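Q: What would this chain look like folded?
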Amino acid sequence: MSPTDVEPELPRRGRLAGIDFGTVRIGIAVTNEDQTLASPLEIYTRRGPQHDQRYFQELVSRERVVAFVVGLPLHLSGDDSRKSEEARQFGQWLAKCTSRPVGYFDERFTTAFAEQALQNAGLTKQQRKKRLDKLAAQIMLSAYLESTSRGADRQPLDDGST
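A: My prediction, written as structure tokens:
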């Protein structure tokens, strides 16, 4: 995102949908109305622009989604990757076809965390595959909720330097 790009401020109430973007599968998580809890929802297998548009429009209606948060797979340095550019393009398409604002959030390591959690739960490889993308979306969306200005009400840690 260039310095001239301004990301829209997302609504503070209503359900957000977190997107773990993929070219084949998309993991989806949603928040509650108060945006205090994120839950895994489903994994959508892409089927082409028309089917994808219809699916996301129906998702907005069915889940009462007020905005989307698309995960960005950034480089370790924090710079955009080829995949994060694809995720941004997807987010722009998603905003256009659903008429909902789209924000972006760093999703580095979410898939690795999700994979580890599923392995720790003792699931088979097949069971993990059925859950991985939506759990990664939940982890990313939870991190987004924790990092947004909802946490601005918290007092900064006193490091003892004053």
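Residues 1-6, 150-162 have pLDDT under 50 and may be disordered.
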